[in-house]
Specification:
Structural class: mainly alpha
Shape: elongated
Helix content: over 70%
Largest sheet: none
Distance between the termini: 116 Å
Low-confidence stretches: 21-31
Number of strands: 0
Number of helices: 11
């Protein structure tokens, strides 16, 4: 072998080891390639099937953040809301659905999303002793759903959910009025029962209960008043009875 052939062979061997060395370095020291949008979407769906909702939340969040313009991302954002919803994280669920609504207002999943926003809001306020102000927002979404998409599966359920929301709001007011009654604060109880009668006349059972309790509270309240105060209270009560 002449000198020229020797150096050519040596160079070829060095090149071969050099390339394999690069592969070794890449494998052990460079960060692995990121999952594609499709891979994140499919992995998230699989996690949902296995009820691994925390894992699904991580995967769908990565999909949303890394690939905002991917065709998989809109459905991934709805799925993120579903993952939070199934995990009973209703505030985060509503936020995800609202983000979808703002980004894709004409998407075919909008009826479902409006429905889920309303239900998520309802579920996060299930404790009767908590303020129920958020239910006004839920009613707005159910109303929009029923008016804009009345023939959809979700739109047909909207009226029933509006009644549920109003019932919950009325029950909260009754809870407060009953507390006043049970602590002998009859004037405050009377006014609260009257408020329920005025605002929730469309709920017959609750209206009947509130009216009966208002009458009892009024009679008990009268016993605690001076003559002047009693006359003023009677005027208010007479106006109320006339309105009913």
């Amino acid at each position: 072998m002449d000198r020229r052939t020797f150096w050519r062979a040596t160079a070829a061997v060095m090149l071969m080891f050099g390339l394999s060395g690069c592969g070794f370095i890449d494998y052990y020291f460079l960060p692995p390639p990121e999952d594609t949008a499709q891979e994140l979407w499919e992995a998230g769906r699989e996690a949902m099937k296995e009820k691994k909702y925390g894992q699904a939340q991580e995967l769908f969040t990565k999909l949303k953040d890394r690939y905002p313009f991917s065709p998989y991302t809109p459905d991934g954002l709805v799925a993120l809301g579903d993952a939070f919803f199934m995990d009973e994280k209703y505030i985060q669920a509503a936020d995800s659905y609202k983000e979808f609504e703002s980004l894709h207002p004409r998407h075919e999943q909008i009826p479902y999303v409006l429905y889920q926003i309303g239900v998520s809001t309802f579920k996060r306020l299930e404790s009767i002793d908590m303020p129920q102000d958020g239910l006004e927002e839920a009613i707005q979404y159910f109303t929009l759903l029923g008016e804009a998409y009345p023939q959809t599966t979700w739109g047909k359920q909207a009226p029933a959910w509006i009644i549920k929301c109003r019932t919950r709001m009325a029950e909260h007011e009754i809870f407060i009025a009953d507390f006043y009654w049970n602590t002998d604060r009859f004037g405050a109880a009377w006014k609260r029962y009257m408020y329920v009668c005025e605002k929730f006349k469309d709920l017959p059972t609750i209206f009947k209960y509130a009216k009966e309790r208002a009458e009892l509270s009024y009679l008990a309240y009268q016993k605690t008043l001076s003559t002047k105060e009693r006359r003023e209270a009677q005027g208010t009560w007479h106006k109320f009875l006339k309105w009913l």
